[in-house]
Amino acid sequence: WDKPGERWFTETDPIWRVHADASMFIAGIRALLLQSLHPLAMAGVAGHSGYKGDPWGRLQRTSTFLATTTFGTIEDAEALIAKVRGIHEGVRGKAPDGRPYAASDPHLLKWVHIAEADSFLRTHQRYAGTPLTPAEADTYVAQSCVVATRLGVIDPPTTVAALDAAIDSYRTELQGTEAARDAARFLLLRPPLPWSARPGYSAMAGAAVSLLPQWARQPLRLPYLPLAERAIAIPVGGAATSVIRWALKHPHEPRT
Q1: Residue 23, number of CB atoms within 10 A of its CB
Q2: For residue 70, which phi and psi values (nearest 5 degrees)?
Q3: How far apart are CA 158 and CA 13, in angstroms?
Q4: What is the reported pLDDT for 6?
Q5: Main-chain phi, psi angles of 102, to 5 degrees
Q6: pLDDT of amino acid 251
Q7: 3-state DSSP assignment of residue 57
Q8: At what angle do helices 106-127 and 24-35 cross, to 10 degrees?
């Protein structure tokens, strides 16, 4: 945060505000569920990431990448992006249906990017203390392209409307594979957490599911209960986010 050096973003930028907010805990779960619906992206995760054996290590690496590329210096961000691109070059294989995949494929990279951008933005707009204005939301989508294009994404969306259209354009490719449903069960029902931590995690997971569109839930066999979600899941998710936001305050900030 405090390292001297030029940065792509400042604390007044929408991307800084979104990625620094406690709602990112819920947004990350939603993003993983949405990303799993692309069978080739999911095959790469299942075959190479080791997410079940070391889920928190993988989460830490993802968090470090987001933090460095959003808040860090350009020098550190570009070095980490180059490292990740090198890792992507080695992630290749075949999905269960026989189709080849490569993590460096710009088409797959674009899906991963737009699923993240959509999840981060929608969750922020639901749970942030101060949601972005429409103009700021467009700016957020555009700013997220700075890193995406350097990772290899071609022609990423730069407005909310274009982001929505990009998500829709992938829907014919999406399906609930057994690997995707297994990942959803792991994320939502069997996280490697002590029992004392599970109520709080379950609140965030329920909120993440409630923010998924109906078309994304059916392939993963996730329930769609709009009345219960409005009455329970969404408010509980808001409470969990408020607690996290309070806990993450700087020691000198007032805890109200």
Answers
A1: 28
A2: -95, -50
A3: 15
A4: 95
A5: -145, 130
A6: 46
A7: helix
A8: 140
What pLDDT is stored for residue 231 in this prediction? 45
> In the 8-state DSSP scheme, what is residue 218?
H
Residue appearing with tokens 């929608």: 122
Residue 117 has which token pair? 């951008």
Nearest CA-CA partner of 92 in 108, 115, 80: 108
Residue 63 C-alpha from the chain's centroid? 10
Confirm if 242 and 200 have CB atoms less than 8 A apart. Answer: no
Would you tell me the crossing angle of helices 160-169 and 106-127 to the nearest 10 degrees? 130
Per-residue pLDDT, 240? 58
* Neighbouring residues of 107: CB distance < 8 A, sequence distance ≥ 6: none
256, amino acid identity: T
What is the C-alpha to C-alpha distance for residues 35 and 33, in angstroms, rounded to an integer?
Answer: 6
Distance, in Å, from the CA atom of 15 to the CA atom of 4, rounded to the nearest integer, reads 20
